[in-house]
Amino acid sequence: MGKTRAADIAGGIGRVSKNVLSQTFEYIDLVEYIPSFVESTKQELESIVKFRGITIGAQDWIPDTKYDLIWCQWAIMYLMDDDCINFLIRCKSSLNEHGFIVVKDNIANKSKSLPKDRAQYRELDNQINRTYKHYLELFSKSGLKLIESIPQKKWDPELLPVYTFVLQ
């Protein structure tokens, strides 16, 4: 994997950009639909890396450059399946030859064998907590290959499980 450019999707106030991505990458694009979050992240990061804030939602983002890494943390759980697949297809097409997509999201249940229809919808924040198999189906439909899936360690058992998926 190269170390030139990363995108932080739905990056909020830039915790991942600052604490993870800026340690490795020269350029960071923060894709976030809340303008004040983009601005505060810019103020923190522009002296550390070459920063570009893109004020748009993930479902509408059309990458205009190539990336070594696209990081999507607690982002695609807010996208409907078709929007998610289209988003991931666009991400895949914007990867450099040895680039990766990382998806970190809640999983509906710790079981890897639950079917897609066991996903949970939270009306409060329009969040879809998909099953593990549902995520694999979305990745497959997007033409992505699962390289690794990693369960979150040291996680409160009262909370939904979290997985990090590494894709290419």
Indicate the topology.
Layout: E1 5-9, H1 15-19, E2 27-31, H2 35-45, E3 50-54, E4 67-73, H3 81-93, E5 95-106, E6 120-122, E7 127-129, H4 132-141, E8 146-151, E9 162-167
Parallel strand pairs: 1-2, 1-4, 2-3, 4-5
Antiparallel strand pairs: 5-9, 6-7, 8-9
How does this structure look, described?
With 168 residues, the protein is of the alpha/beta class. It has one domain: 3-Layer(aba) Sandwich (Rossmann fold), CATH 3.40.50. It contains four helices and nine strands; from the N terminus they run βαβαββαβββαββ. The strands form two sheets. Strands 3-2-1-4-5-9-8 form a seven-stranded mixed beta sheet, sandwiched between helices. A two-stranded antiparallel ribbon has the order 6-7. The chain is globular and about 45 Å long. Belongs to the methyltransferase superfamily. NTM1 family. Keywords: Methyltransferase, S-adenosyl-L-methionine, Transferase. One of its GO terms (biological process) is methylation.
